[in-house]
Amino acid sequence: MRRLTIVFLPVLGLVALAACSSPKPVLYPNAQLNSVGKAQADRDIEACEDFAKNNGVSGSGNKTGEVVKDTAVGGGAGAAVGAVAGAVAGGDAGKGAAIGGATGATAGLIRGALKDSGPDSTYRNFVNRCLKDKGYDVVGWSK
Prior knowledge:
- By secondary structure, the protein is mainly alpha-helical.
- It has two domains: 1-60 and 118-143, no CATH class; 62-117, no CATH class.
- The chain is 73% helix and 6% strand.
- It contains five helices and two strands, in the order αβααααβ.
- It has helices at residues 2-20, 31-54, 63-88, 93-114, 121-133; strands at residues 24-27, 138-142.
- A two-stranded antiparallel sheet has the order 1-2.
- Helix 2 crosses helix 5 and helix 3 runs antiparallel to helix 4.
- 23% of the residues are buried.
């Protein structure tokens, strides 16, 4: 049990850290940005994000589904590799499958949680259009 705690606490910390930051539009320093300044631009970005959400466009995508899928795929692949390794090494294929499955699932969980899927394209396009209407030039999205 102690080993599980030692392994999973850092993993949970990484997952929480990844979940806290979300990509935001990056603005080109054009005349509009230069005239209003960063603070006003940040308020305009927030207003455009709220405008998108109020019009039924969500930026969340299906992050949970992706993490579950990556965890399941990692667990399945790890179990298969572990079973083969356990059998080839003359040991217990079942024990190898269990170890490989747990290792693969953990790797899949970490991969899925840290993968930067960001907001979906409809949300990004909606926010980009709103910012363009305000005179900004969005060059991309970044955390």
